[in-house]
Amino acid sequence: MSETTEAPQRPSDDRSDHPVLEAEGLTKLFGRVVGLRGVDLRLHAGEVLAVIGDNGAGKSTLIKCLTGAMQPDRGTIKVDGQEVSFRSTQEARAHGIETVYQTLAVAPALDIASNLYLAREIRRPGPLGKWLRMLDKREMERKSAEHIKELGITTLQNIHQAVETLSGGQRQVVAVARTGAFGSKVVILDEPTAALGVRETGQVLRLVKDLKEQGLGVILISHNMPNVFEVADRIHVQRLGGCAGVITPESHSMEDAVAIMTGAKELSREEQALR
Fold it and tell me: Rounded CA gap, 60 and 52, in Å?
């Protein structure tokens, strides 16, 4: 039998009663500097949760704790209601959590198919794969084409094309497509539209919506308020290491979001209870 890396089974499109990813009381200290202070976060399947905040608000620290890149000093993380403790990003990936960081982890010299299966390469069947560790490039190309079709991506026509020949937006789409192909529960995107043009930004946002429609939970970290309000179901506002509140595009305006983010406005107890 060939040694293959199959995409984990995906959740159904219907949002469940319990969160697919949940954090309670996450605290992270860097000496006397507070990175996170008692942060709660809840993400459901088939939902886009935006995380916004000024520089130093704790967004990156929060994401690193959720993905195993960093361990919180206190607090709990649950996946599908089961408490977990990630010691590495590999452990988080094994639980169905995929992340695209702001610095794209793509190999420019490799083609699209090879990038989609980066660190998940399929080996040839029999002794060639088991002992000589030869890769089954044809199978990876076939499955890559299937993944791209399933995700509804039309901007990547040739999976044999080297990533270094793609535009910035197309490279971002490749990175997001990889998480969409293998993320069985949660996809986390760190500033996916930063430094992209209008057209390329639209491509990435459409892919975010496609991931949501497939039943994945999506966490979107972004400074771009129009993008956030276009795709987010709920918006988690970070401020000074803590959560200043959770709002929705229906309940609050972009101006409200910025005001909460900067401390110019605080949510009432009634508004806080709705999150």
Answer: 10
